[in-house]
């Protein structure tokens, strides 16, 4: 499911919560040809008792499913969440196409020093909508950008004609 829907925005992350060694995890992932991310030593705001257990979050980050991935509702919920992501992207894309970019493609740096190349299309509240090289629109928290990039965005948002 991860491989088939990755281009649509699906990301599967499997938390390993039984303190297995890396070697034991690798044996299982190799045996079952697991291609998604496995994270070790995770905890979170939701506790589970059954294994396996899946959580599905929609385009807004809201939890829309919690349960066994074999449940009939699981795949239906994932498909619905993917449709909603597409709908959100299409709405943003059509709005952005009529207004043009806020800041042309450049390298942006986050507060941890990591960088991405993207076009700043517009600012919505506390987030900037970046258009990635592949055309996908990604909402990113402005507060997680470097101070210089935050200042650049603020200035461009206040004076959009200058860009």
Task: Describe this protein with a few key phrases.
163 residues; alpha+beta; four-stranded antiparallel beta sheet; two-stranded parallel sheet; 33% helix; 28% strand; elongated
Strand and helix layout:
Blueprint (H helix, E strand, L loop, with lengths): L1 H4 L7 E4 L5 H10 L5 E4 L13 E4 L5 E5 L4 H28 L3 E7 L5 E10 L2 E6 L4 E5 L5 H12 L5
Parallel strand pairs: 1-2
Antiparallel strand pairs: 3-4, 5-6, 6-7, 7-8
| Secondary-structure element string | HEHEEEHEEEEH
Q: Give the strand content.
A: 25-35%
Determine the N-to-C terminus distance.
41 Å
Major β-sheet annotation? 4 strands, antiparallel
Shape: elongated
Poorly predicted runs of 5 or more residues: none
Q: Order of strands side by side in the largest beta sheet?
A: 5-6-7-8
Rounded mean pLDDT score: 79
- Annotation, overall tally of beta strands: 8
Task: Describe the protein.
The longest helix is centred in the middle third of the chain and has 28 residues, at 72-99. The chain has helices spanning 2-5, 22-31, 72-99, 147-158, and strands at 13-16, 37-40, 54-57, 63-67, 103-109, 115-124, 127-132, 137-141. The strands form three sheets. A four-stranded antiparallel sheet has the order 5-6-7-8, sandwiched between helices. It is elongated and about 55 Å long. Helix content is 33%, strand content 28%. β5 (103-109) and β6 (115-124) form a beta hairpin. By secondary structure, the chain is of the alpha+beta class.
